[in-house]
Amino acid sequence: MLFRSVLLVTISAFALLYWRMVCDMTGANEPWDAADFLTKWYPVALAASAVSGFWLRLWGWSAGVIIIFAQLPVMLLNSGTGPLLVVGLFFLVGLAFPAALLSAAAGQIATLVAPTNKEAS
Q1: What is the C-alpha to C-alpha distance for residues 74 and 10, in angstroms, rounded to an integer?
Q2: Structural domain contains residue 119
Q3: Do residues 46 and 100 make contact, with C-beta atoms less than 8 angstroms apart?
């Protein structure tokens, strides 16, 4: 359980730093407004979700959600709140769905490749 908690904190920190870097490199206030978001930045986030999901095993689905929703605090720091915040939340849900499926699948693969008795924790 401690290992999972450390992984979740590490994944969260990585995701926040990643999306902040995306904004800094592209000059966008919101990560999804970055140039090449769908062709470069989002696929990297999906790959990170899969790798993180593999390490989290049965909790793998959470990696995709964490990595995608880490865009929210970055956006709030850069732009603050506004009338389009609700639209942004719906957009994040849409982006998180494939990431959660991918990370959950990677977690399931991890349990098949190297099953352990630690899954109950």
Answers
A1: 17
A2: no
A3: no
Task: Report the alpha-carbon distance of residue 56 to residue 36 in Å, rounded.
Answer: 29
Residue 50: inside a domain: yes
What is this structure's pTM?
0.89
> Tokens representing 110?
């991890």
Q: Is residue 120 part of a domain?
A: no
Across all residues in the chain, what is the average pLDDT? 91
Residue 73 reports pLDDT greater than 70: yes
What's the confidence (pLDDT) of residue 121? 46
